[in-house]
Structure formats: C-alpha cells, structure tokens
Fold each of these.
Amino acid sequence: MKYRKTLYENYHTTQSGRASLTDAKSLFLREKVRFSKEILPELPKDKSAKIFDFGCGSGSMLSVCQDNGYEQSTGMDLSQEQVDMAKDFGVKGVEHGDALVYLKETTEKYDVILGMDIIEHFTKDELVELLIALRRCLTPNGRLIIRTPNLDAPFATVFANGDFTHENYMNVSSAQQVMMACGFQKVSVNASDMSIDNPLKELIRRFAFWELKILYKWQLFATGRSTRDVLFSPNMIIIAQNG
C-alpha cells in the first residue's frame, strides 16, 4: 500500500513521538517500564530462549529482554528512523526490513515471537497471512505474545483510530477466533497495564476504573450479554501457543 511508504518512513516523528507528547528517549524508557510489567512475566524462565520482535520500533521491548538476560533476542522494523533510534539507545540485534517478508522466507525457529502494537497495522488478509507465517517460525510449544488495541475499551476510538496506519481492530472474542483459526492453541487474552507512577493518581485511577467497569457491565447485562470474555483496558495482551 502506497501510504505505508510515506507514513512509516518517519513514524516516530509523525505518530509515536507526537502522540506521546515526549521525546524519543523518554518514550523509550516509558515503554520499557510498561513492557516490564505486561510482557516480561510471560517470557520463558530459560534465558537462552530465542526471541524475535517483529515490528520492534525503537527497540524498547527488546531492551527489556536484553536487560533481563535474554541475549538471543533480535528484532526488525520497517521504519529506518526507528531502527536508527534503537541502535542509538544501545539495543542489539535490530535490523531494518519488512518483517512479514522475512517471516515468510526465513528458516529460523524462535521460542518466543513478540509483536507490540503491530498487528493492527495489517489488513485482515495480511494478518491471517502473518499469523500463519509466525506460527511456522515458532518452535513446538513456542509462544506468540502480542499487544494490540482492545475495541471493547471505553473510548476505544482514541486508541484504535488515533493512528492513520491502523487497519483492523479486535476484542477478546475476535482475537481468540483468529488465533485458533490460524492453528494456535491455548490462547489467552489479558488486560494491559494501566498504572500511573504517581501513587495518589494511581489510587484515584483505580477507583475511577472500578466504577467505570461496573457501569459497562450493567450495560452489557441490560442487553442480555455476558461479561465473561470482555476486557475494558485500552490494550490487550494476546498469548498464543504453537500447537
């Protein structure tokens, strides 16, 4: 698609850095804190695990892996600007390239493949193609760990439509559906981290979110729907095991 060449070339300048209202290094460090809470606990205990981060951006998730002893962790991103930033921030093993093309052609096998805020950038056809390629590149019982916007979240359009390059949106049900259809097993979907560093603000946020969840659950109940597989966090963490 032609728009991708224009928008991805300077993605940090036009989107991720602009939307976060911060400089590149501050955003990088903030993402590391978030990923340490959300993703690090899901990684294997074996530090020799081979990890690939497709669409790794500035390398914040890879940096978390490498800081925690996962030395066989590498990544790829389509944006040269973000790859250059990753290298400037000391992240190792980051390459510039089209991860989808790489995953379809490589003979490498990984214990874990990560995709942070990336699958929403693919069309539905492309996403199915991508997931099949990802599963092929996983070892038996290997894990795919993905973070993506959650369409069931309050004000979901702030996150889903806040980036012009987003192509598809999912909730818990559709995430499980597409993962299982593409051959993954033991698919779980978790809420993303929403914590705030300031203790007082975090306390207020927790109370406000608790009230908000009650309101939304009442609305679902009133329409005769179950709240069992509904998350309200802005993002969701999808963990799928290769069967």
Amino acid sequence: MSNCAIRFKNISKKYDTVTALDLVNLEINDHITTALVGESGSGKTTLLRLVNGLMQPSGGQVEIFGDAIDYEKLPDMRKKMGYAVQGGGLFPHMTVYQNITIMAKLENWHETRIKERADYLIELVNLQKDLLDRFPHELSGGQRQRVSLCRALMLNPSLLLLDEPFSALDPITKGYIHEEFVKLQKAESRAILLVTHDMEEAVKLADNIVIIKKGKVIQNGKVEEIIASPKNEYVSNLLDKVTD
C-alpha cells in the first residue's frame, strides 16, 4: 500500500490573471506531519484548500489516499478529514462540548461513544472540564484552539489539515499549545498537513517541510535535510529566523 496521503499532480491555480500555483507536483506522506511554509501569498493556503475541496484547481489533479477527488461526493470525503483554522472557527451559538461533538452527532454516533471520544480528546489537549458549557466568546485564544483541535479530531480522521492554527496566539500560549500538539501526534498516527509562515514552528512540529514561494515548490524534504542543505538564499533566510 502506498505511503502517500496526498498527491498533487501538475496542479495550477489561477485567479483571473494571477497565478497562485504553477504546475505543482508534490506528495504528502501518511503517518507524519508535513509543514507547508511560505510567506503571505505564496500559495500554501490555496494548496490546503484544494485538498478538502473548498476550491478546485485550474489544471491538474489532487489525489487523496490514491483516489482523485470526486467533487460530487465532497461530504463523504471530508468525513475522513479534520480541519482547523486560525482563531478556531468555532460555531458561536454552540457550547464548547457541542462544538467538539457536532460531527459525531451528525454521524449518529451512540452517545456513549461520543462521550468516550470527547473525554479522551479533552484530556489529551489539556482542556479544563469547567469550560465545556461555555461559549466560544467566553474563551481565551488558546482555549479556542484546543477546542478546535478536539472538534477536528472527533471522528478520528485519517488526515488532519491545519491552516495557520496557532499564528494568532501569544508566544507563551503558543508554546503550551505546541506541547499539546506533540502529544496528539504521538497518541494517534495520521497524516497531518500544517500550513504556517513560521519556520520555527515548522521545524518544531513537522517531520517534513515543503517551502513554497510564488506558487512554486522551492524545497521539499525532511526537516534535518533542509536545515543541513538549504537549497538557496530564500530558504537560508527562513532558517536564520529559527532559534535553538
């Protein structure tokens, strides 16, 4: 069986006259965390949104676990994916517990199964139990991000997509969330695609790094390989920002 979770084949994406992605060929491996790193406007978030069908490529094909995306069956495909964004993206009219469990309820899971899975995730990300009846506006940024991770992982998806999930957090809170994220990685093996503009975060959390600039992949490989042999000055400058 292939170890490839996501395959981008000759992917291009254009917005009017602007080319966001230019013939990208890339494989994202299963059971590891891959960070997509690039400055604002590099095309990294566009790549992520192609994976869950929020947008379609102008050319080329995206495959998920060996199958080309069927845009007529996106809801079925998305059940296999967790998705978390900057700020949490929580439903404001739902409590913390309702946000975490909504997908399982829509899938008609038994209440016992829902509670067991929710309790496991809540403990894993170190979310205080007394927050479960609160609403998103009553939470701190770090708390919202923990809830968002729990919701994204509720159905135990094969693929987790993270779009700048930690970028709005202050450095201290971000450090704590990073620790919880590492625990999640160790507890459950899955393909994780993390979009970030923060090279330090990528080096800390990812196994592989893909560096993208102006819609093209500049370098792709294991973290230690990229640190040892940056391909050009652009990559070197990104690495210069990484502190020990």
Amino acid sequence: MKETTKYQNEIKDKIIAVWKILDKCLNEDKIRFSSENTFMFNFALQLFKEYPKSVEKFDFEVQLFQDFSDGKFLDLFVYFKDNNKITKVGFEFKFPKKEKNGSGHTQVRPKIIHDIKRLTWLVKNKKIDIGVFICATNEKGYIKEGNYKKNKEFLTHDGMRYPEGVNLPLSEDYKEKIKSLIDITFNWNHLVKEKKGLNIEEGKYSFLEPIFVL
C-alpha cells in the first residue's frame, strides 16, 4: 500500500469529521433523509459549510466512465485545494433503508462492492486522486454475517475484509475484474450483540467507517 501524503490525511480527516456530523444528524438530532440523493446532497453541503477554504468546487453525477456495467456517472466529485495544488476526490454513496415489504440487501450488497470497484478503477486510471465510499443503513442484513442464498460472495458484514491485491467479487451484472488497491475492512458503528448475532441499536442508523481508496 502506498504511503499517503500529509494533505491526503488532512482531506481524510475532514471527510471523517463530516461523516460524524451526518451520524449525529440522523441518530441524535433525528433529522431524516428521504433518499440516497438527499443523504449525498447533505454530505456535500456540510462539507462545503465546514471547509469553505478547502473545497474549490463540487459537482454531482459527473461522467467519468466510458463503459461500466452500471453506468458512466460518479455520485460526487470534489476538488480540494491546498495553495495551488488540487486534489480530486470522488465519492460513491449508499443509503439503504429498511422497507416494510422486505429486505433489499440481496440486491444492494453487490452494488456496494461495485461502488468500491468503480472508485478503485478511477484511482488506478488517475481520473481521481482519492476515492471515498460512504454508507449508512438501518437494516441489519448489511452488518450481520449470514448464510445468504443469493449473492453470497458479496459480503459487507461487520469485520469483513478484502485484502490488498485480491480480486473483488464479480457477477453477470457486475462483471468488471478489479483488484483491490488497499486493505478493505467493513467497520460499522452503533451495533449491539444479541443471541442471534449483531444488530443495529434500536432506532438508529449504522454508519460504515468511510472506505478510502488511494
């Protein structure tokens, strides 16, 4: 794994600080976001509000891919500035919520892994300098280790690790062959241990520790 620069670490610290602010909004202030887009927009606006001198500009749904299996657009593209130097940071977001009519984790777990693959591809091809995956959920299917019948190779449970250099999972729908550039570990917060395993604290959203690809 390549070493990060001082300014890259400063960017990571800023992103983690905003991540904590969103966590507080959802879990302490009880502010509700209606969709993944609302979650993403609030993150971007909060980032600019907290660090106006560091954020040169940001944009949503930026076309950076030529031909990827689930589209050509990156969720959020942010230019961080340090004197005359610009660091390009790309974000992908997921905000799966518990539904009354059943769980969606079978379909969304592959999309989570694929978002990380997309960011990895962008960093490797020098389209961005840092990739960041941000996710929060109130559904235990993502954080709890289980005996899945479908998409069982796409694992996101707490403590799951994809080591640097490993081939990330693929399928017919998500067929890009991508090797991880980093050690990826899924660390979720606001968890409690129950007889049947881990669960999310009652009434809370569990936030995944941001995954940084660089």
